[in-house]
Amino acid sequence: MIHALQTHFGPLFDDDFLEEIARVGTFREVPAGFELIDIGETIKGVPLLLSGVVKITREDANGDELLLYYLEQGDSCSMTFSADFAHRKSKIRATAELPSSLIMVPLAKTQQWMNDYPSWRNFVFYSYQKRMEELLETLDSIAFDQLEKRLWDYLQQKARVTQTKLLPMTHFSVAQDLHSSRVVISRLLKRLEKEQKIILHRQGIELVAM
Q1: 24 — alpha (psi -120 to 50), left (phi > 0) or beta?
Q2: Which residue range(s) make up the domain with 164?
Q3: Are residues 37 and 126 in the same domain?
Q4: Domain count for the chain
Q5: How far apart are CA 130 and CA 126, in angstroms?
Q6: CA 7, CA 89: separation in Å to the nearest integer?
Q7: 72: nearest Cα among 161, 163, 159, 8
Q8: CA 20 to chain centre
Q9: pTM above the 0.90 mark?
Q10: First CA to last CA across the chain, in angstroms?
Q11: Widest pairwise Cα distance in the chain
Q12: From 26, 64, 105, 139, which residue has the greatest number of CB atoms within 10 Å?
């Protein structure tokens, strides 16, 4: 565990702090599709992602999901920090997009570290800033961008974080992430295919242009 921490968090934290994380943290490996936390659940730990990708989503009253952002290696989720500080239950769903490894840090330690380790405090503030910028981009795309542009941006982001141009996903799953209907998404995917940006396969969506 300490080697993985040094590899992904060594530039951020000193050796003493890395050893403290390794001492109190719990290493986990999860398969793609594994749900780390669901909406309404009590958050028991803060994740430090060592490898893989985790998708963070919200849900409306009708049960439709909206993609907020992705966590990649070296990231943590600021939504779990806020739940810790406010003593509230989770308002997000965190699902492994790829097989992932992470270290779960007990919530009781995170506030203590804010006082004991300036590097941790800086990391928390940076995580807030990074996620806020991503959330603002999401809000801007919802409010101002046409759905076709949102769809193309989404597919490119998905290809980047999963490091593959062949995305094994259905039109329905894309529609869920973009808060749209399957019929609309299917029509827009056909348009992107005519523009020679993608190829639609039975097993998924292949990006041609990036």
Answers
A1: alpha
A2: 146-207
A3: yes
A4: 2
A5: 6
A6: 32
A7: 161
A8: 25
A9: no
A10: 36
A11: 57
A12: 105
